[in-house]
Amino acid sequence: MLSSYLPYLHDSGFFDQTERTDWSSLDAYNDSQTGMLLGPEHIFQVEFIQDIMQQESDSLDCGMFVAAFAEVLSDGLPVPKIGFHSEYLCKLYGALLWKYGTKKAKARYVSENDDPTRPKSHSTVLVQEDLVNVD
């Protein structure tokens, strides 16, 4: 399931984001009639997990954090309570992608998303008398 999240996050520029989100500037979080930021009167259900691991508050690099939680939640695993080590996860996901790539290359697998192979160009030797000079 994680393999479907990572390309989406990459293509949307999520990993390139370096500024905090200004929620009040997004239409989805504003009341359609007043234009004001939605307040607590618009409630929704929240599930609270005590002592959950969290990203450092001064860190804007949340790509690995989001990818790790996407994997945990999509696989229905219990949310870990231990510290978050982004360097370890970068190495883990890098190793998994490398292993996937080598298996794909060894099996000579071509996905439907890859460009189709181009036919080999055929060159023919022209006979001198078949050529026409245009002046």
Question: Can you put this structure into words, describing what you see?
Answer:
By secondary structure, the protein is mainly α. It has a domain at 2-18 and 52-111. Helices cover 32% and strands 0% of the residues. It has 3 helices and no strands. It has helices at 2-11, 63-74, 86-106. The longest helix has 21 residues, at 86-106.
Short description:
This protein is an all-alpha fold and about 140 residues long. The chain has helices at about 1-10, 65-75, 85-105.
Strand content: under 5%
Question: For the residues shown, what is the average pLDDT?
Answer: 73
How do the helices and strands follow one another from N- to C-terminus? HHH
Number of helical elements = 3
Alpha-carbon distance between the two ends? 64 Å
List the helices and strands and how they pair.
Elements (H helix, E strand, L loop, with lengths): L1 H10 L51 H12 L11 H21 L29
Descriptors:
135 residues, mainly alpha, 32% helix, 0% strand
